[in-house]
Amino acid sequence: MAFASGPFTARRFTGTAARAARQAAARAAGAAKGFGIAAACAAALASSGAAGAAESGKVGLGLPLLTSPFWQSYNNYLTVYAKEMGIDILAPVNSNNDPAQQITDMNNMVNLGAKGIVVGPIDSAAISRALTNASQKDVKVVAVDVAPTQGQVAMVVRADNHAYGEKACRYIGEHVKSGKVVQIMGDLASVNGRDRSEAFRACLKSYPGLSLLEIPAGWKGDVAASALDSLLTANPDVKAIYMQAGGVYLSPTLQTLRRKQLLVPAGDAKHIVIVSNDGIPQEFDAIRKGEIDATVSQPADLYAKYGLYYIKAALEGKTFKPGKTDHDSTIIQLQPGILEDQLPAPLVTKQNVDDKNLWGNTIK
């Protein structure tokens, strides 16, 4: 949740627009390898987009990473919805889970003349530097998936991450009466990681028969696997696992359990109850096989759709107020001047895993 090289310095993006275009083209081409856009086409789009960005009001797209199937799917939805909405976009840029690189990427988009940016923040606090620069240049920004703790954005598009942790806890609490529960946490520099961790931890106190063990894995699958291996060696009697991001933790977790001969299908008395977050096809397959029990479907399709919807609205001068929306969500006020559209994120179990309305079942 692959890392980029060190950040560019400020001097490196104060050169000519042509050099900025070449940098964006090169990064777009490299990013494209991971999400189905031909590298040459992505590079051409970035290069040609640089020249006309200021005139056409292009929108920049900042991806936090592309090693997760969730973000790969989100990226694919972006191009579909941008075309439907008639939004002129610069080629998406992948920051490889590097907060410093993301700041550079956003500043480059501003230098290329983007009038709006849709970005998935990696670090809730660090991104404030890029938000300040965008605000000073009158560039609108919509944050997707992660809310910044500082800085100005037109809207945050996100699901209720406290609900993710609580739904996972409730499912485990209903199916495991006593024993040890492992929480594989995300990056605590991200508000998502904090919200899910705090909600799960608080909820588990309602189940006195359950004790909590935690792994701070920072959205890194290899870190999660190594720590889980050691934890299971010391605690072979673990009864349940909560993974905060199936896109990065699912495969390493299942591989670790399989290697330790602890991957027992649902229905067996030795089965370890596993609940995940994301709603990717791989999780659905694991539910069908009985390898995991449930996941919270984080709406990759709606993140893309409404991220673009709100950036278009911002560029048109439209504003919003807290309250119910026309798309089954609620806009809340996070802090003065910052609104968040909290999109629905359903719990998926064996009972509804084949629901055709789930975005994870629409990917071929």
Automatic annotation (TrEMBL):
Q: Which domain of life is it from?
A: Bacteria
Q: Which Gene3D superfamilies match?
A: 3.40.50.2300
Q: Which GO terms describe its molecular function?
A: carbohydrate binding
- What Pfam family is a match, any one? Peripla_BP_4
Where in the cell does this protein reside?
Cell envelope
Q: Which SUPFAM superfamilies match?
A: Periplasmic binding protein-like I
Q: Which family does it belong to?
A: Belongs to the bacterial solute-binding protein 2 family.
Q: What is this protein called?
A: Monosaccharide ABC transporter substrate-binding protein, CUT2 family
Source organism: Paraburkholderia caballeronis
